[in-house]
Amino acid sequence: MRYLVTGATGFIGAHLVRRLAEEGHHVTALVRGERNVRGAQTIRGDLATGAGLSAAVDGADRVIHLAGLTRARTPQGYAEVNTEGTRRLCHALAGLPQPPRLVYCSSLAAAGPGRLRHEDDLPSPVSQYGRSKLGGEHALHEAADRVPGIVVRPPIVYGPGDREFLPRLVTAVRTGLLPAVGRPGPRHYSLIHVDDLCRALILAADRGTPGATYHLSDGTEHLWQDIAAAAATALGRRPPRLVHIPASVAMAAARTLGRTTALNPDKVSELLHPAWTCATGRLPFTPHITLRRGLTAALRPQPDMP
C-alpha cells in the first residue's frame, strides 16, 4: 500500500512512518523544510501555499494528514494551516481520477471540553487551535462528494519523543509542584499512547467509514494528579503536590511569555476547563498500552527517536 503522510517530521509522524515502513508499506512524506524522513520518500511542499501537493498525492492509496500548527501568533495563523491547508490537500486529492482514502488527525480540542464527550455531541471548541482543527474537519465534509475522508480526534498524545506533554510532567515531578489552572477541583483527562494512536490511524485508513468522526483514548478517564503520580513512579520520585493557579495569573503569565510559547493564552483557554475526556468511540479499536506502562517506557531515554 502506498501511503502519503503529512506532518511526518513531527512527534506522531515519526512513529507513524516507522510503523508503516515496518509493515512493508511505501511511504511518501510531505515535508516543508530540508529535512529528510527516515523510511520514506520525501517530497518538499507546504500546506500553507499548496506547493508540492500535486506531486505528493500522485499515486497514493491512503493519506494520513497529521500536519498542523499547535502554536501561532494570530487566529489567522492557525487557520491558514489547520483549516485552509487541509482544504488545499482535499482539493489536490479531489483532482485525482480515483481519490484515495484520507484520514484527518484532528483533535479533541475541536470537540471542546467536557466529560465523556461523544462523537455525536455538538462541537464547542474554546481555543483558536480547536476552532481551526474543526475548520479542517469542515473542509473534509465539503469535499465528501469526491474524497472519502475520515476524521480522528485524539486527546492528549504521549510517548517517546514527546516534547510537549511529557516535559511538563517531568518538570512537575522534579519540582514537586503540579500546576492546575483555574478553580480548585478535580481535573479529568483522556490520553492515548502514540503507538496506539498510530494503530488506530492505520485502522481508520483501512476500515473507517467515509464521513465518520472517531474519538480515541486509552479507555480511562484519568485524574490529573493520578497522571502525575504515574510519572513520578516511572521516575522513582514522590508524586508532586497539586497547586491551583488563578486564571488571571495564568493568563497574565501567558500574555507575557507570548503566543508561540508552550504556555500561551490559547492554551490557557483550554486549561481553564477541568475536563477533557471522551467516551469510547465507534472505531473498532482496542488500546494496548496502559498509562503506567506507557509512561514507564516513554520516560526512558530514546536515542533513536528525533
TrEMBL record:
<dbReference type="GO" id="GO:0004029">
    <property type="term" value="F:aldehyde dehydrogenase (NAD+) activity"/>
</dbReference>
<dbReference type="Pfam" id="PF01370">
    <property type="entry name" value="Epimerase"/>
</dbReference>
<feature type="domain" description="NAD-dependent epimerase/dehydratase">
    <location>
        <begin position="4"/>
        <end position="214"/>
    </location>
</feature>
<protein>
    <submittedName>
        <fullName>NAD-dependent epimerase</fullName>
    </submittedName>
</protein>
<dbReference type="InterPro" id="IPR001509">
    <property type="entry name" value="Epimerase_deHydtase"/>
</dbReference>
<dbReference type="GO" id="GO:0005737">
    <property type="term" value="C:cytoplasm"/>
</dbReference>
<dbReference type="InterPro" id="IPR051783">
    <property type="entry name" value="NAD(P)-dependent_oxidoreduct"/>
</dbReference>
<dbReference type="InterPro" id="IPR036291">
    <property type="entry name" value="NAD(P)-bd_dom_sf"/>
</dbReference>
